[in-house]
Amino acid sequence: LYIFCDGPRGQADREGVESVRRAIREQRWCGEVKIIEQETNKGLAKSVIDGVSMLCKKYGSVIVLEDDLVLESGFLLYMNRALNHFAYNNELMQISGYMFPVPEINSLEPTRAIFLPFITSWGWATWDRAWTQFDLRCDTAIAELKKPLVRQAFNLDHSYDYTEMLLKQLAGQIDSWAIRWNWSVFQVAGQVLYPSKSYVENRGFDGSGTHGWRSRNFTARSLNSPFPSGDRTSSEIFLPETTGISVDEFRLTKKFLRESNRTWVGRI
Q1: What does the angle CA 142 – CA 211 – CA 78 come to, to the nearest 5 degrees?
Q2: To the nearest 10°, the Cα dihedral for 214, 105, 77, 2?
Q3: How far is the C-alpha of 1 from the C-alpha of 127, rounded, in Å?
Q4: Which one of 44, 148, 201, 241 is most buried, counting C-beta atoms within 10 A?
Q5: Which H or E run contains 258?
Q6: What is the mean pLDDT of residues 10-21?
Q7: Can you tell me whether residue 12 is helix, strand or coil?
Q8: pTM (2 d.p.)
């Protein structure tokens, strides 16, 4: 386990940062833990990009968590098996541990594999072969997104305004690694594996975080284990040999995102 702890932005943050670091050091997380503490503040995007790049280069793949996530007990099993299973499938760019609270999808068989053409940032994994395609500067994005069909596709058929988010990133108005990673996946027509039921709940919606906002539209409604009690065997996780966009589930997810757009409170 590698824990990356960013440095304070100023004196006002120092006490909070030190409190977090004490909590990190006191926990018995697992067998081997490496804590990387920054002296100065790198910010969200650079911290994540540098950490993922370092670990992908060292190990060939990485599972990424931010600090406001709560995990179901089957999360690591699912992630590791999917990482191994799809290690050489160049169409697949990411594995998501999170699934949107879409009742029609959440009620599917718990072992159902779903493939969607966009990323999420709440508990995910990738490989070095995919991460090397990360487009840090997104140099072609402004010109490409002036094309109506490109913009429509990137915005998931007008379901979520990823274009506005990326333009804000390029203008220096937000500090996001995720929107650039999403653009990177979009450019190569990449796919992301999702479970039918979420392994992840985000508890960061109280408005207190720098990059959070007040909303519960995306909170998984339950974290009931996707697996029956007892031993979890490989047969309980169905991972197909081939990938391909899950058409019905993609349609339902776009519908959910469009409806959620109408009730957002706060900011991205």
Answers
A1: 90
A2: -20
A3: 17
A4: 201
A5: helix 247-261
A6: 95
A7: helix
A8: 0.89
